[in-house]
Amino acid sequence: MALNLKNELSFVAAGDVVKSHGKVVRVIGGLVKVPIKRPSNIVISIPGHLKDIDLYQAARAANNFVCGSDLAVKREGF
């Protein structure tokens, strides 16, 4: 089950836990990810409400740029 930014039900998957999770990740990823054309020198990340409640949560947004499947920051970048 996945919720949108308005906390409304967006997608539901059932059955095998691992397969269902994979389906939800693919569907939501297609809705919220932005394609990266090429890595940049500087990337600014703003996690938004509820994801900025503490430093740990806020750092998660930055981790997506550094550790995500599409590299957003150049090797020597910030």
Whole-number count of domains? 2
| Rg over C-alpha atoms, rounded to the nearest angstrom | 15 Å
Number of helices: 2
- Strand order in the sheet with the most strands: 1-2
Mean pLDDT: 79
Main sheet makeup: 2 strands, antiparallel
Please provide the ordered H/E string of secondary-structure elements. EEHH
Low-pLDDT residue intervals, each spanning 5 or more residues: none
| Shape by Cα distribution | globular
Distance between the termini: 35 Å
How large is the share of residues in beta strands?
5-15%
Regarding quaternary structure, what we see is single chain
Query: Pairing-aware structural class of the strands and helices?
Result: mainly alpha
Share of residues in helices: 25-40%
Q: Quick one: how many beta strands?
A: 2
How are the SSEs ordered, and which strands pair?
Layout: E1 2-3, E2 9-11, H1 17-32, H2 55-67
Antiparallel strand pairs: 1-2
Describe this structure in words.
The model has no long low-confidence stretch (mean pLDDT 79). This protein has a two-stranded antiparallel ribbon with strand order 1-2. It starts with a strand and ends in an 11-residue tail after the last helix. The protein has 78 residues and is mainly alpha-helical. The protein contains two helices and two strands. Strand 1 (2-3) and strand 2 (9-11) form a beta hairpin. It has two domains: 1-33, no CATH class; 36-78, no CATH class.
Short characterization:
The protein starts with a strand and ends in an 11-residue tail after the last helix. The chain has two helices and two strands; from the N terminus they run ββαα. The protein is 37% helix and 6% strand.
